[in-house]
Design brief:
The protein is built from 28 helices and 28 strands. Strands 1, 2, 5, 6, 7, 8, 9, 10, 13 and 14 form a ten-stranded mixed sheet that branches. The chain has a six-stranded parallel sheet with strand order 17-16-15-18-19-20, with helices on both faces. Strands 21-22-26-25 form a four-stranded antiparallel sheet, with no helix packed on it. Helix 8 crosses helix 27 and helix 22 crosses helix 23. It is globular, with a radius of gyration of 29 Å. The structure holds pyridoxal-5'-phosphate. Pyridoxal-5'-phosphate (PLP) binds next to helix 8, helix 22 and helix 23. Belongs to the glycogen phosphorylase family. Keywords: Allosteric enzyme, Carbohydrate metabolism, Glycosyltransferase, Pyridoxal phosphate, Transferase. InterPro entries: Agluc_phsphrylas (IPR011834), Glyco_trans_35 (IPR000811), Glycogen/Maltodextrin_Phosph (IPR052182), Glycogen_phosphorylase_DUF3417 (IPR024517), Pyridoxal_P_attach_site (IPR035090).
Length: about 850
């Protein structure tokens, strides 16, 4: 019989247990083991069935069990302890208050709005697809731990990112699940009248789209989530926030309008509502929220600023982080399509962002040629400070965007880097965490940088812990492989073999990440017979566990995945290699922690950072990677293995050479070391490497380190730069007038003559002093408008000065510019003189793209 309708019967939480709901609504429980254990102990079965989601779980616990817990003094005591701990966590001063902003008052004038298209915080808030989102989630958690005053802005998707399964042939199947706000750890933001806060944006055709604002509380950090699935919107508008990275360009533009423009409106309304200072620094995590800059420019113009003044002011307080070193990874839109959204009536003044002159705004992002609008270019133009996510990625980005700073060599392109990190409390497994506590003491290590005490962990302790983690992984893999085969149409009766796959004592290699072609999931299959020999060695068994989703539209990615699945389906190896469908945060924790070796073999330098390997390091798993992303700057033979990059153009040959190196290192180094036992039966050599990795690498890859770097290198300087404009309302006008004057006069700037005194026949004794004198023509400009510098350095292959040293010249009595210096290192040194504009508002010499060289 079919029911006429369905109703949900929810248990009421007894008053004594009311604090559980508050605990559940602050996502800090996700990185506090005791709090997670508290929810679990209320009803382990219901907790597991809810997907470890306390919000969904509480209404499902039986009234009897709730009444029992409400009388259970020990349960109540644990609950009160958690409530107290959370309160202390939220109220006590932290690193930011103690250190970062100490000199500048309690908040250093900084209050940061952090925009991202995705946030990976907990599997129970499925609004992420992969690394970018998880990085954003870890950023919020560490900002919270460190007390950084940050408010985040993202989208609340009606459908989570897809869940993955396989068909019989190993082809990826996608299924989307509806996100029910009642089961998500979010609450509506209520306005003064007790209604849900909404903001709006107007689309062409006079369509006003209402955006409801929700909040998820991540420790101290509020995450505002924007949702267009609102009753007053038409069907099309309700679908704007339907799903992450779905739909066409049109859809993406509208999503980004909601995130960027709606986001600024939401964060301002929210700040006013809760009485918090409006944000002074806007951090764009990837280019998706670039329109936020245009909205802020429009707002300045509504208060009377001109376009250039507004841009100067907005730039000062904006930080842009780029995440991809491949041009195809950048959001690019048809310029005319975007124009139709910004300027629906063709009047030249935007209807979407009042007062914004559309063509001037579009010019910030339009590529040469005029047809394509590039969100990364907008990011660099609207943010005075920008960065890549590892040192190598910073360098690659400088080369990639050099054209935006004509006249400057790659090293001077003003894109820095802050190397990614991972949130330790989220990614460390419980048994490893216990070892850390034992070695380092039970201290808040988010600001502890010396982890050398981890070297005191014994072989025995590490072996016991690592064996346990590997066993957990094997158990999980068996469950997932069996489930997967049931979904692929196998009968339970033919799946007994899945209970015995993998070996809790074999060397376990993990590989899990999004399946994009550049990550080369199938590199390990280059020589299938050789791989089989490695896996099937009876004396020294090796096994591989693989996971990862491919973007639904990425056909080559799905083909890679199918190849791997088909290999793993082979009866001869299926007990040694397993593919686990539906990779997510929860699977990642077990898979990464339980792997002895974490393999990463992208095409260098296409992996901007990669963070899964950092999670592995924290857990005592060893790195086996191409020299790319974060490993390029931290690689260390005592802490892992590096696959050399083949210096050949042809991709197929390069793959073959690098695959060969991969096998070779496995066969010659990794496998023997893992299976080597000392007289006591211990893996002493292996654990020595684990200790090195923990001591030397782990402290450098935490999100705490990353967020501290953002605060010191980017947020506080941006806050200072932005506050200069607030303190001096005339500054924007002055700067803009100065800039126009400098641009106008620049053609008259020239370096006439350069003389090096103290050089004899082109040679000089090391260490002796030289004087450099230059005649510089400035036209109408004043000395203070420019920086005149000697540029010195070694000569490179193309006759250019590499890694130049800059020495300022000063104007002497005789009107000429001069500097004295000594050259100490022997060798051929190149020297020239150059002039660049100088103004307190400028953060880099290359910013105006003006330079004159001798
Ligand atoms: C860490 C993580 C990623 C990112 O991994 P990369 O190494 O950066 O590719 C992707 N998905 C999940 C579920 C993760 O936990």
């Amino acid at each position: 019989m079919k029911p006429l309708s369905t109703i949900t019967v929810a248990s009421d939480l007894p008053d004594a247990l009311a604090p559980l709901r508050d605990l559940a609504l602050n996502l800090r429980w996700t990185w506090r083991r005791q709090a997670a254990d508290l929810f679990r102990s209320l009803d382990p079965a219901v907790f597991a069935a809810s997907g470890e989601n306390p919000i969904a779980m509480l209404p499902q616990v039986s009234a009897g069990r709730l009444a029992e817990a409400a009388r259970d003094e020990s349960f109540l005591a644990r609950m009160r302890a958690e409530v107290g701990d959370l309160r202390t966590y939220l109220d006590s001063g932290r690193w930011f208050q103690r250190t970062a902003a100490g000199a500048q008052g309690s908040d250093g004038g900084a209050s940061i709005a952090y925009f991202s298209m995705e946030f990976g915080i907990t599997p129970t808030l499925p609004i992420y697809s992969g690394g970018l989102g998880i990085l954003a989630g870890d950023h919020l958690k560490s900002a919270s731990d460190l007390g950084v005053p940050l408010t985040a802005v993202g989208l609340l998707y009606q459908w989570g990112y897809f869940s993955q399964s396989l068909d019989r042939s190993g082809w990826q199947q996608e299924e989307y699940r509806l996100n029910d706000p009642a089961e998500l750890p979010v609450e509506p933001v209520l306005d003064g009248a007790g209604e849900q806060l909404t903001v709006s944006v107007s689309l062409p055709g006079g369509r006003e789209v209402a955006i409801a604002v929700w909040t998820a509380q991540v420790g101290r950090v509020p995450l505002l989530l924007l949702d267009t699935n609102v009753g007053s919107n038409d069907e099309q508008a309700r679908q704007i926030t339907d799903r992450l990275y779905g739909g066409d360009h049109e859809h993406r533009i509208v999503q980004e309008i909601v995130l960027g423009i709606g986001g600024v409106r939401a964060v301002e309304a929210y700040s006013a509502l809760v009485g918090a200072p409006a944000p002074t620094v806007f951090h764009l995590n990837e280019g998706h929220a670039g329109f936020s800059g245009l909205e802020r420019v429009g707002r300045r113009m509504q208060s009377g600023a001109g376009f250039s003044e507004a841009v100067a002011e907005v730039r000062a307080g904006t930080v842009f982080t780029t995440h991809t070193p491949v041009p195809a990874g950048i959001d690019r839109f048809d310029a005319s399509q975007l124009r139709s959204y910004l300027d629906a009536d063709g009047s030249g003044l935007s209807h979407l962002i009042p007062s914004l002159p559309v063509e001037a705004a579009l010019a910030l992002g339009i590529e040469e040629g005029g047809d394509v609008f590039n969100m990364a270019q907008l990011g660099f133009r609207i943010a005075q400070r920008s960065n890549g996510v590892a040192k190598l990625h910073g360098a690659v980005s400088r080369a990639m965007f050099q054209d935006l700073y004509p006249g400057f060599d790659v090293p001077e392109v003003p894109i820095g880097s802050v190397t990614n990190g991972v949130h330790r409390r989220t990614w460390i497994s419980a048994p490893m965490d216990d070892l850390y506590k034992k070695a380092l003491g039970d201290v808040d290590i988010s600001s502890l940088t010396d982890w050398s005490a981890l070297s005191t962990l014994t072989d025995h302790e590490l072996t016991e812990t690592r064996d346990g983690l590997r066993a957990d992984l094997v158990a999980m893999a068996r469950r997932h492989v069996k489930d997967s085969w049931l979904r692929r149409g196998a009968d339970e009766a033919e799946l007994a073999w899945t209970d015995h796959i993998l070996d809790p004592n074999a060397l376990t290699i993990g590989f899990a990440r999004r399946v994009s072609t550049y990550k080369r999931l199938t590199l390990m299959l280059s020589d299938p017979e050789r791989l089989k020999r490695i896996l099937l060695d009876p004396e020294r068994p090796v096994q591989i566990v693989v996971a990862g989703k491919s973007h639904p539209a990425d056909r080559p990615g799905k083909e890679f995945l199918q190849q791997l699945v088909q290999f793993a389906d082979d009866h001869g190896v299926r007990h040694r290699i397993a593919f686990l469908p539906d990779y997510d945060i929860r699977m990642a924790s077990v898979l990464i922690a339980g792997s002895d070796v974490w393999l990463n073999n992208p095409i260098r330098p296409e992996e901007a950072s990669g963070t899964s390997g950092m999670k592995a390091v924290l857990n005592g798993s060893l790195t086996f990677s191409v020299s790319d992303g974060w490993w390029d700057e931290m690689k260390d033979d005592e802490a892992g293995w590096t696959i050399p990059t083949a210096q050949v153009e042809d991709q197929a040959r390069r793959d073959a050479i690098e695959a060969d190196a991969l096998y070779e290192i496995l066969e010659q180094s990794i496998v023997p070391l893992f299976h080597e036992r000392d007289a006591r039966g211990m893996q002493h050599g292996w654990m020595t490497k684990v200790r090195s990795s923990l001591v030397k690498v782990a402290p450098r890859i935490t999100a705490a380190r990353m967020v501290r770097d953002y605060v010191t290198d980017l947020y506080l300087p941006a806050a200072r730069a932005a506050s200069a404009f607030v303190a001096d309302p005339a500054l924007a006008g002055e700067f803009t007038a100065w800039k126009a004057e400098v641009q106008e006069a620049w053609s008259q700037v020239a370096v006439r003559e350069v003389i090096l005194e103290g050089v004899q026949e082109g040679t000089v004794a090391a260490g002796s002093e030289l004087t450099l004198v230059a005649d510089v023509e400035l036209g109408p400009l004043r000395d203070t408008d420019v920086l005149v510098e000697a540029v010195l350095g070694e000569i490179g292959a193309e006759d250019e000065i590499i890694e130049p040293q800059l020495i300022p010249l000063r104007r002497g009595e005789d009107g000429r510019w001069a500097a004295r210096f000594a050259l100490s290192a022997p060798g051929r040194v190149g020297c020239t003189v150059r002039v660049t504009p100088q103004h307190p508002v400028l953060a880099s010499r290359a910013e105006l793209g003006l330079v004159t060289t001798a």
